[in-house]
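so im writing up the methods section and need the Ferredoxin record in one place, dumping it here so i stop losing it
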Amino acid sequence: MIAPAGSVDRIAAALFANGLILRGGFNFALGEAPPTGSSGAPAAAVLLVGQAGAAPWPHFLRWREKQPRTIADPLDSWSREVIGAVAETFGARAVSPSDRPYLPFQQWAMRAEGLRPSPLGILMHQRYGLWHAYRGALLFDDELSVQAAEAAPHLCDSCVEKPCLKSCPVDAYSGQGFAHQSCLAHVRGANGEPCRSSGCLDRNACPYGTAYRYPPEVQAFHMASFAAVAG
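--- predicted struct ---
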C-alpha cells in the first residue's frame, strides 16, 4: 500500500511550524532489514527530519523556558517531543539519532538526499554547506510517494584549498580522521575560548552555505554540550 502523496506535504507543514524540515526519504527495498514501524512490523518507508541553518532555535528556546534547567540533552528532548507529536498525528514511529542501538542515520541521509561527507565528516549539502542537521526520522508501515534523490556534484571535490583542514589549532581533522581527545582537550583548555564562544574553527572556515551558518550563540550551545559530555 502507498500512502497518499498529500500526506508528505502535511507532514512537512507540521514540522515547518517548529522550524524543522523534511530532509528527503525513501521506501525500503525488498531484502533490507529496516527497523520496525508503528505497528511493530518492519517499516516500509522512512522520512528524514532535520534543519537548515538555525531555524528551529527560537522554537527551541521558547520550549526550554518552560522546562527545568536541569533537563539533560534539552535539544534532543525538544526534537523528540516535536517529532514524536508529528509521528503520532500521522501514524508513524519517531526515532532519533541518539537512540540505542544506533540507527544508520548518515547512510539514510546520503540515500535520501544524495549527499557525501565533507572532510569533517559532516555531510556536505549543495545549498546549506555544513550548516544543517538531522534531528530524527519517521518510520511508516506503508510505502510513501517520495521523489528519489538526484545526483549532484560534491562541492568538496572542487574545493582545492580545503580551509576546513587548516584552521584548527590542534589539527583535529586530518586524513587519519577526527582526533577526538585533542579537540576535546583544546576546547576545554585555556586556549579554547574562540571555539567555545564561536564554534569549530574548521567548520566555520568552509566557504559553502555561509548564509545558513549558525549564529555564535547556537554554535556556543553545541560546543558547550560537546565539552560537557564528550570523553
